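Sample 1 of the test manifest.
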Amino acid sequence: MTGTLTLIVLLPLLGFLLNGVLATQLGGNRVGKRFVTVVGCGLPLASFALVLQALAQLQSGDWKPLVEVAYRWALIGDSRFEIAFYFDRLTAVMALIVTGVGSVIHIYSVGYMAHDKSFGRFFAYLNLFLFFMLLLVLGRSLLVLFVGWEGVGLASYLLIGFWFDDLANARAGKKAFITNRIGDAGFLLGMFLLYHAVGTLDMDRINAAFNTAGGAVPAVSASLVGILLFIGASGKSAQIPLHVWLPDAMAGPTPVSALIHAATMVTAGVYLVARMSGVYLHAPEASAVIAIVGVSTAFLAATVALVQNDIKKVLAYSTVSQLGFMFLALGVGAYGVAIFHVMTHAFFKACLFLGAGSVIHALGGEQDLRKMGGLARRVPVTFTTFAIATAAIAGIPPLAGFFSKDEILWYAFASSRGGSVLLWGVAAATALMTAFYMTRLLWLAFLGTSRMTPEVEHHVHESPWSMTGVLVLLAGLSAVGGFIALPHFLEPLLPLPAVNEHLHAFETPLLVVSVVLAASGVALAAWLFGGDPARPAALRERFATAHRWLSGKYFVDELYERVIGRPLVWVSDRVFLRLGDRALLDGTLDGLAALGQRSAGWLARVQTGQLHLYAGLVLAGIVGALIWSWRHV
Amino acid sequence: MDKTQLLLGLALALFALGLLGVIVRRNVLVMLMCMELMLNGVNLSLVTFSQQAGTTAGAVLVFLIFVVATVEIALAIPIVLLLVRDKRTLDLGAYSDLKG
C-alpha cells in the first residue's frame, strides 16, 4: 500500500483546512491572497498529478484495480465497514475529470473572484468540494460514496449561498439541499436493501454478487434496488421530477456553476448508475425507467432553454438536458458512452460556463441576454472559445460533443437493451433544439448589434490571462476530447450493449441525420436571430401560449408550491404548531402549572402564622394517629 | 385505686393541663411554663413506671429530660426577649408575620 489514493483525497481537505482556518474570519485573515492562491490551486493540481501517477500504476499492474484501506470504520460481528479507496478504469476517468477540470476552474477563479471580500472562504469551500467529490468517486463502499455524496451536497449548498447577503441566493441554496434530501431518501433505502441482500456495501462485491447469481440475488429484486438508487441519482443529477434545484443553483458564483453544477457534482448520479451497472444489467425495468426519465428530461429541459433570457439559466437548462442524455445512455445499457458524455460535457460545459462568467465579468455583473450583443470584437478570446464550445455541444463534427452525442443517439436507437425508434426520435429532436438554443445564446450575446447601456459598454474588457488561458485550454479539450476513445477504454469494465443485428445498416444514415440536425439547428437560430429583430418577436407573438409555458419553465415550481409547499405549511401550522405544539404540549404543561398554582393558593390559607392553630393541628394530628394505631394494631 | 394508678393519673392531668395551656393561652411566657408542665407530666410517668418495673432506666432518663429542659429554656427565654424587644408585647397574636 503506497497511500497514493488516500493522499489524492486528503490533499484538498488539507487545502480546505489551511484556507478555512488561516484565510477567513475564523483565523483572523492571517494570510494574504497569494497564500490562498498557492494553497487553493496547488493542492488540487497535486491531486491531479497523483491521479496520473495512480493511473500509471494501474496500467503497469495490468489494469488490476488498486485497493487501499485507509481506516477501519466499524467492525460489527463479521461485517466490516472500511474507508477503502478503489481505483479502476472508471474511477480513473472520473478522478481525472474531477481533479483536472477542477484544478483549471480553481485557476480561473483566481481571476474571477479577485475582488471578492471572501476570497479565502471561496477557495476553502472549493477545496472542500473537491475533497468530498474525490471521496465520492474513489470510495469502494457505498457508505463512503454516500459520505462524499452528502458532502458535495453540503459544499454545493455553501457555494450556491456564497453571497448569502442576498436572500434569494440563500433560498436557492436551501432549495438545492432540500430537493437533494428527497433523492437521498431513495438512495438510503436502496443501500439498506442491498446490505440486507448481499451483506456488503462494497460496490465491486455487490456487482460480482449480482453477476454470479445471474441477477437472482435472494430476497431482493435488482429493479427495486435500481429504481431506489436512481431516485438518489435523479436528485443529485437534476432529473425530472427533482430537476428544479439546478436552474436556481446558478445563484452561486459562476466558477461554482461550472465546477459543481455542470462538470462534476451533477454527474455523480451518472457515475453511481455506471458504477452499479452490475445491478442495472439485471434490472431491465429500472433501466427502462432511467431511459424514459432521461430522455424526457433532456427534451423538456431543452424546450425551456429555448426561450430563457438569463445567460446562466440557458446553460443551466442545457446542463439538465445533457444530463438527460447521459441517463438515456445509461438506460439503454451504454454505460461507457454515458461516462464519455460526462467527460466531453465536462469540457465544453465548463468552457461555456466559464465563458459566460467571463462575459458577466466583462459586463460588470449583467446576465440578461437582452442587454448584450456585439461582444465578439470586444472580448475576442472569450468569443472564440465560447463559439468552439457551442459548436461542440451542438454536435458539429469533429468536436467532442458530436462523438459522444452521436453514440448516445445510436445506442438509443439500436441497443438490444431497450433501444427504440421512439427514444431516438425524442433524443434527435432534443439534439436539434440543443444546436438551436446554443446558437441563439451565442448570437444574442456576441453577435448582432449591441444592446448594452452606454456605461456598461464603456467598461467592457477582456478578462485577465488566468481566466482566458483556462478558456483556451478547455476549448481545446472541447475540440479534440472526442478523439479519446473512452467507451473503448472502459469496455473491459463497462461492456457496451449488443446492437440489434438488423439495425446495423442504419448506422451511417443516422450519423448523417444527426449532423444534418445539428447543422440545421445552428442555421435556424442564425436565420432567426441574425436578421431582422422582428422575426423572433413575430414568432413569439404567434405562439404566445407556448412561449408563456416555456418561459415559465412549465410552472413546475409553482405546481410544487401548490401541491407540496402550501399543504405542508398548512399541516405544519395547523396540526403541528397550533394543535400539537401549542394546544397539546403547551396546554398540558400550562394546565399542570395552573393546577399547582391554584391548589397552592387554596392550601396557603391554612398558613395563618398563628402558632396556636399550628399547635392545635399538631394535636389533632397526634390524636388522629393515636386513634388510627389503636384501631389497627 | 392504688398508688401507681394515682400517680399515672396525676401525670396525665399534668400533661393535659400543659397541653391545654399551650393551646389556649396567648402569653408566650405562660406557654413556655405550660411546656415545662408537660415535660414534668412525662417525667412523673417515667419515674412511676421505673418504680413499678424495679429498674433505674426510667429514673436516669428523667435526669436527661431535666438537662434538655434547662437547655431549652436557656434558648427559649432569649428568643422571647428578642421578640419582645421588637414588638413590645408578649401576646403571641402579634407575631403572625409568617402567614401564607
